[in-house]
Amino acid sequence: MIARTFRGPSIRTKLLAIVVLTGWVALVVAGVAFVAYDWVTFTEQRLSDLDTQSEILGSLSTAALTFDDAAAATEYLSALKARPAVREAVMFDSAGRVFATYRRAGEQPRAPPSVEPDGHRIRGDEVQLFHAIKKEGERLGTLYLRAGLERRERLMRYVGIVLLVSAGSLAIAVLLLARLQVAIARPLLEVAEVAHGVIERQDYSGRVTRYNDDEIGVLVDAFNQMLERIQQREASLQEANRALQIEIADHRAARKEVAALNESLERRVAERTAELEAANKELESFSYSVSHDLRAPLRSIDGFTMILQSDYREALGPEGQRHADRVRAATQRMGQLIDDLLKLSRTIRAEMARKRVDLSELAGLVARELQATAPERDVVFAIAPGLVVNADPDLMRVVLENLLGNAFKFTSKVARARIEVGSLWEAGTTTYFVRDNGAGFDMKYAGKLFGAFQRLHAVSEFEGTGVGLANVQRIVSRHGGRIWATGVVGEGATFYFTLGGV
Amino acid sequence: MRRIARRPLLALVGLVACLLAGAASAEQPLEQAVRSAFVFRFGEYVAWPDGTFAGADAPLVIGTLGDDVMADNLEEAARGRKIGGRPVVVRRLREVAQAREVNVLYVRPTRSVHRDDLEQALRGRAVLTVGDKAADAGAMIEFVREENKVRFEIDAAEAERCGLKLSSKLLSLAVAVSESR
User: Fold this and answer.
1) pTM, entire model
2) Å between A66 CA and nearest CA of chain B
């Protein structure tokens, strides 16, 4: 029960319990000790009282016994009225006969006792005493006293007193607590209340009043300081939180913007891609029509011109014959043009597969093929060894065929033709070049060099379709590289190209 | 003290009866024994003036005048007994003059023992005199019969005059006490 009380809700109740319990325990212990002490001492006191009483009575009664005056003895014994504890008294003479008796008022008469040895004996709640009456060493008689100890009555009285005092002490304890509460319970209760506010409502603004300078005062101060610090920390935390939230909002907005931008970009890319795809389709259909629809009329022109030359030789005459030749040459050139165009479109669409390609070896191969077309020419090929690249070998062959073919073509009118293939290494990039000492070109037309069907020289001077360099530029750019040229009219030209990636 | 002049009428009747009965009235042997025991015991309740006894061990002397039966009984009672730490000696006196030498005197007036002579002889002496009221001995303590019991009267004033101090216990048992004459 005590434990339950001490787990209870309020320190007020505990204080009350402590005060009352302490007081009550002290009281009960003291009461029990006192009653125990009294139990013993009262009995002793009562016995010694009876001894004294019997001594006085005995001494007083010696003459009465001596002179056989029972009336006097009875009168002496009747003085015991003043002692209500004594219930019965009997005086025996020396022969053991009853000499005088006394009985307390209201006491039930009993058969008179017989003389027993001197001394007292406790029987139940009574003490019986036999006392020798002596004079001059001679036993004159015996005095018998029977007295109540009234121990139970005393015990009840003490219990009553203890109960009364404990009731009084409880009242005093309650009064005392009202004052104690100011000193101990009130500050603690206030601390508890503020703490409750902190837990329930996160309210750190509450403060506890300090009432005294004891440990509770220190506790209150510490509690207040703690609250102060928590409040400050909370405030700075909230500040930081606010800043962070603003930052997060900014970040989100920025991200949204980026996303929107990305989206529009993607949309534009998609649009462009779609446009490009459409353009490609157009080009393809154009190439198809060129290859099929343009070739058929050319073949009829060529065929019928040939029939004219063979069947109507005389009607044409030599003049007509020459014209017919020119018609046929023109149709053949046109067929060549169409072939080149188809090649270009194939180059654009062909799948690209990069692998290790030895440019030096490939260039040597192309040079030998060119030499074979015009064995009478004396052309010096200077090809640098060990030019190894990572590129599509078929496309690289197209590049070298075009560049070396051009160089071979434009040096046809030079006495000591020289064609050089090599590489430069600068700024982390390898640049390959093909140089010749042929016709060259005017640098102001450098921008037109790589356009399709663009020609800087008359066909009569140097034959060609004007598709080759356009094709080369497409291949180089598909490899992620760049192509450009320098030249001086009559001194030669140099074509540079790079191949991006590895 | 309440016994002072208790039942005076009865006492008077008793006195008259005793007088009528005369000194010759036969006394019961038991009553004789009681009287001798009383005489013997009176010494215990009396204080003699300083200088009465020669020393601490000096005997208490009880004398009898005119009553040998009493002397016999007293001798019987005193044998081996002490009073106030003193041995007891019983003397049978023949002359009144001898009464001056004792501490307690039981007197029974006879032809040779006169009350007036005795008064003369004992004047100023610290001698406790005991006698029968019926015999008119003029003693300090006189026996009376009351309700068939032996009781006594005390002339406390006379005893005081003679320098004797009687115990209050003794006085309280007396049926009558004359404190001053």
Assistant:
1) 0.46
2) 7
